[in-house]
Design goal:
The structure holds 2 protein chains of 2 kinds.
Chain A: H1 2-52, H2 67-97, H3 106-128, H4 142-197, H5 205-211, E1 222-223, E2 229-231, H6 236-269, H7 273-278
Antiparallel strand pairs in A: 1-2
Helix pairs in contact in A: 1-2, 1-6, 2-3, 3-4, 3-6
Chain B: H1 18-40, H2 54-58, H3 60-65
Classes of the chains: A mainly alpha, B mainly alpha.
The structure holds zinc ion.
Keywords (chain A): Membrane, Transmembrane, Transmembrane helix
Protein name (chain A): Putative cobalt transporter subunit CbtA
InterPro entries (chain A): CbtA_put
């Protein structure tokens, strides 16, 4: 049985990733290109300032893949494989939850597990460390940023699992409704404390040293030595659109997982006499 | 259309005996985490296949869009 559940999860995950990719290709790529254009314009302005100050020109890294490959093939492969990974995790979580989280119909459980994945793996970490387009993010801080993001994700998933276990325990004493509210409240409090304790990206030591006290790594206006702005800060509308589409793409991915897996699970788990014998 | 209750009257019967299913479930989790790592993190914060940037550059846009930290 577990093999059949996993196979379905992986296949539905690939489909979910494919749909999210189509969305990304249409909506995200223009924003990504706008961000890259901003970055190259800023690099030119910075180079002009450096030249005027008599500093050596920094060289750009070699281009391994063209923008056309990255924007059409790379993002597609990345998102489909991400869908496969999430489908696999979804299937494992589904298999573990089956029969252990109350009398839920197979398809209801499918939607709940997908919702949990969306929240735990993506949306809750996003609240603290939101998705950023190219040109936001300093090269020097990639190690702590990567570690903080993974830590945030692990906390979020662990606390979510903890909240489900807690809710199950409380249900006997307080009933389903109140137990769900209490477990949700516990999750919000604990994850809120974790978010308050973890540093904002602007507070990382390397950033404070180079840019002073800032909340994030979003590029500020570039100024010349006289203090005049020679290049604007990162465009707010591009940042909003990119982040909004990022959430939308993940919502599409997890909704597809839940919705397409639901009828498959219903059929797989239907108590048919013949199948019961086979199990 | 008749409304179908979200819950069933009897407990959902299928409970996978975890020790028996452990091999497949554990293997699947490892496979998924490896994929997650290579799409989102490798050749950024840490690197498995040396110092080149092939994986990072290839899935670059997906990495940004899926919410992972990048450049
Ligand atoms: Zn990048």
């Amino acid at each position: 049985m577990e093999k059949r559940i996993i196979l379905r999860g992986v296949l539905v995950g690939a489909l979910a990733g494919l749909l999210a990719f189509v969305f990304a290709r249409i909506f995200a790529e223009p924003q990504i290109q706008a961000a890259i254009d901003y970055e190259s314009g800023r690099d030119q302005a910075q180079a002009a300032l450096d030249k005027a100050a008599g500093l050596p020109a920094g060289d750009e890294g070699p281009e391994i893949f063209s923008r056309a490959i990255q924007a059409n093939v790379g993002i597609g492969v990345g998102m489909v494989l991400f869908g496969v990974a999430m489908g696999a995790l979804f299937a494992v979580a589904y298999a573990v939850c089956l029969g252990r989280v109350g009398n839920l119909r197979p398809r209801t459980l499918s939607m709940l597990v997908a919702g949990g994945g969306f929240l735990g793996i993506y949306l809750v970490p996003f609240i603290k460390y939101p998705a950023n387009p190219p040109s936001i993010g300093h090269q020097e801080t990639i190690a702590p940023r990567g570690a903080l993001y993974v830590l945030m994700m692990v906390c979020s998933v662990a606390f979510l699992i903890g909240a489900v276990v807690l809710g199950k325990r409380l249900a006997k004493r307080f009933g389903n409704w109140n137990a769900t509210l209490l477990a949700t409240l516990a999750f919000v409090v604990v994850i809120g404390v974790a978010m308050a304790l973890l540093p904002s990206l602007g507070e990382l030591a390397a950033n404070v040293r180079d840019y002073g006290p800032q909340a994030t790594e979003t590029p500020l206006p570039l100024k010349n030595p006289a203090g005049q702005i020679v290049y604007p800060g990162f465009p707010a509308d591009v940042l909003w659109d990119f982040r909004f589409y990022s959430i939308a793409a993940q919502a599409i991915l997890w909704a597809t997982l839940g919705l397409v897996f639901a009828p498959l699970a219903e059929r797989l788990l239907a108590p048919k006499p013949a199948q019961q014998l086979a199990m | 259309m008749s409304t179908i209750p979200a819950t069933t009257a009897v407990a959902t019967p299928v409970v996978l005996p975890l020790p028996k299913a452990m091999l497949w479930l554990g293997g699947t989790v490892l496979f998924a985490l490896a994929l997650y790592y290579f799409i989102g993190i490798d050749q950024g914060a840490t690197s498995v296949f040396g110092d080149n940037m092939y994986i990072h550059e290839f899935v670059h846009d997906a990495r940004h869009f899926l919410g992972f930290p990048c450049h």
